[in-house]
């Protein structure tokens, strides 16, 4: 079963990558971009077939490795 | 209106970041991980309020800057 972990910088945390993208978009002539935040998606292919167990395993992985919970928040979705 | 652009490496394209995560998860004792793919999410806060126009603008940004369409595929979602 597949799980997707979305990791985003928390609100209020400086996001230099997002800022760089925002400036680049402006430079390319895209107007009307107020804010850009850049995060990560990690797609996990798990052998676990029970949705509840797969989700809790993915959350555990996110907490221990994929996200830095001091500055990042994460969300797990099963696909 | 907010748009999210998901950028993933295309199937068949080598994903060293995903491989590194996979090995790290194994090292941490997580079993049952078959495959890991690592991608990006870019959250755009656009002034455009028309959903169709916002989506097409975000797709345009993805094609021109956010994704390298030779090796990456992208998907736009409005939030």
Looking at the overall shape, the CATH architecture of chain A is 2-Layer Sandwich
In CATH, the homologous superfamily of chain A goes by the name Phosphoribosylformylglycinamidine synthase subunit PurS
In this structure, how is the largest beta sheet of chain A organized? 3 strands, antiparallel
Q: Could you tell me the number of beta strands of chain A?
A: 3
Task: Give the neighbour order of strands across the main sheet of chain A.
Answer: 2-1-3
**Cα-atom radius of gyration of chain A:** 16 Å
Strand content of chain A: 35-45%
Largest interface: A-B, 31 and 31 residues
As residue ranges, the low-confidence spans of chain A are none
How confident overall, as mean pLDDT of chain A? 97
User: In the CATH scheme, what's the topology name of chain A?
Assistant: Mth169, Chain: A
Q: Termini distance of chain A?
A: 7 Å
CATH class division of chain A: Alpha Beta
What oligomeric arrangement do these chains adopt?
A: homodimer
Question: Strand pairing plus helix content of chain A: what structural class?
Answer: alpha+beta
Tally of distinct domains of chain A: 1
> Treating each run of at least 4 consecutive H or I residues as one helix, how many helices of chain A?
2
**What is the string of SSEs of chain A from the N terminus onward?**
EHEHE
Main location (chains A, B): cytoplasm
Subcellular location (chains A, B): Cytoplasm
Pathway (chains A, B): Purine metabolism; IMP biosynthesis via de novo pathway; 5-amino-1-(5-phospho-D-ribosyl)imidazole from N(2)-formyl-N(1)-(5-phospho-D-ribosyl)glycinamide: step 1/2
Catalytic activity (chains A, B): N(2)-formyl-N(1)-(5-phospho-beta-D-ribosyl)glycinamide + L-glutamine + ATP + H2O = 2-formamido-N(1)-(5-O-phospho-beta-D-ribosyl)acetamidine + L-glutamate + ADP + phosphate + H(+)
